[in-house]
Design a protein that fits this description.
The protein is α/β, with parallel strands linked by helices. It is built from twelve helices and 17 strands. It starts with a strand and ends with a helix.
């Protein structure tokens, strides 16, 4: 099987779909041919020579490979270069980018979205959302420490004792838990909140406190994500949070469900309640932000509070983000490879069926199909 690795064309995207470690396994044990576009790994600090040493061919038409692997969704021009009947694997934004799904179907491509991998035990090794969320959670804590004009840890000096920073993490998914762990390593006193009461044990296992807002209802939905709160629940949560924010130096927000607008957790009133010089890092900025005053891609100061809205954080740590993502891809590629090394797509398999977006010229993913119909109806 021939696997193509193109350059990522979207501005700011520094990750690459495959790294030499994974290429070596695919070309060696897997017996596949891997073709890498020149410079594909450059932004991730991987030279072409490293791919060649791992057994890949650098140069050639990567888009005509049996399987093309990417990070970011392809452009319309890139989709037109894919082979009819070929396979594309990558982040495809099926719930928010209907034009991508439509173009892939028209091109006759069998496309798999990494964000649609089912959240089941057997597919954990392919869970790219979680692997990239780990990077994002780690990075948010570092951004918070950099933006805060004080120490994270408690320091005892000849000039007296400096109290540790008080950090609140909103959302205890993969990114939130990593943010908690990182802020704790930096020495902060960490508190966390999540509408899913089941994660309390995980929060406390990391040495953080669980913030009890007195809200009795649990909001866990299928797949481990939080369900959308009712209007009454949202209002009660915001009121309680606004009061709680007054004692925190840093707030890291990580509440996000793929394909949906980010839930509003921190209002302008809540920001105004925070101490002067406090910091908010909004991991959900790309989806509208958990904070009412977040400006995606910008760092602003409102009411004396610094609000950072970073986007595509995994791309800011391209080496390890690419390494983790490439391992996710490898696990999926191995799943769709037969014993003889040929492509073998079993659409009865739960993972394969859950991740496929387009097939045989049609959009087969329910969410992607609904998004496409909605876009056509509104045009």
């Amino acid at each position: 099987m021939r696997i193509g690795v193109p350059n990522e064309s979207i501005g700011g995207e520094r990750r690459v779909a495959l790294v030499p470690e994974v290429v070596r396994r695919l070309t060696g044990k897997g017996g596949h041919e891997v073709v890498v576009e020149p410079g594909a790994g450059e932004a991730a600090l991987i030279p072409d020579s490293a791919y060649e040493e791992a057994g890949a061919t650098v140069g050639g038409d990567v888009w005509q490979a049996d399987v093309v692997v990417k990070v970011a969704p392809p452009t319309t021009d890139e989709i037109s270069r894919l082979r009819h009947g070929g396979v594309l694997i990558g982040f495809l934004a099926p719930l928010t980018s209907p034009e991508t799904s439509r173009a892939l179907a028209q091109q006759g491509v069998t496309a798999f979205a990494m964000e649609s991998i089912p959240r089941i035990t057997r597919a954990q090794s392919m869970d790219a959302l979680s692997s990239q969320a780990t990077v994002s959670g780690y990075r948010t804590a570092l951004i918070a420490a950099q933006e805060l004009g004080r120490f994270f840890p408690m320091l005892t000096t000849a000039a007296g004792t400096v109290k540790p920073a008080q950090v609140l993490v909103l959302g205890a998914g993969v990114a939130g838990l990593q943010a908690i762990a990182t802020a704790r390593r930096l020495g902060a006193v960490v508190t966390a909140f999540d509408v899913r009461s089941a994660v309390r044990e995980q929060v406390e296992s990391l040495g953080a406190k669980f913030l009890d807002l007195g809200l009795e209802s649990d909001a866990e939905a299928a797949g481990g994500y939080a369900r959308q709160l009712t209007e009454e629940e949202q209002q009660a949560q915001q009121t309680a949070l606004n009061e709680a924010l007054a004692k925190f130096d840093v707030v890291i927000t990580t509440a996000l469900v793929p394909g949906r607008p980010a839930p509003r957790l921190v209002t302008a009133a809540g920001v105004a309640n925070m101490p002067h010089g406090a910091v908010i890092v909004d991991l959900a900025a790309e989806a509208g932000g958990n904070c009412e005053l977040t400006e995606p891609g910008e760092t602003v100061v409102r009411e004396g509070v610094t609000i950072a809205g970073p986007i595509n954080l995994p791309a800011t740590m391209p080496e390890h983000a690419s390494q983790l993502y490439a391992r996710n891809l490898m696990a999926l590629i191995e799943l769709i490879t037969g014993e003889d090394g040929s492509l073998q797509l079993d659409f009865e398999d739960e993972v394969v069926a859950g991740a496929v977006i387009t097939r045989d010229g049609e959009i087969v993913h329910e969410g992607a199909r609904e998004a496409t119909m909605a876009a056509q109806g509104g045009s």
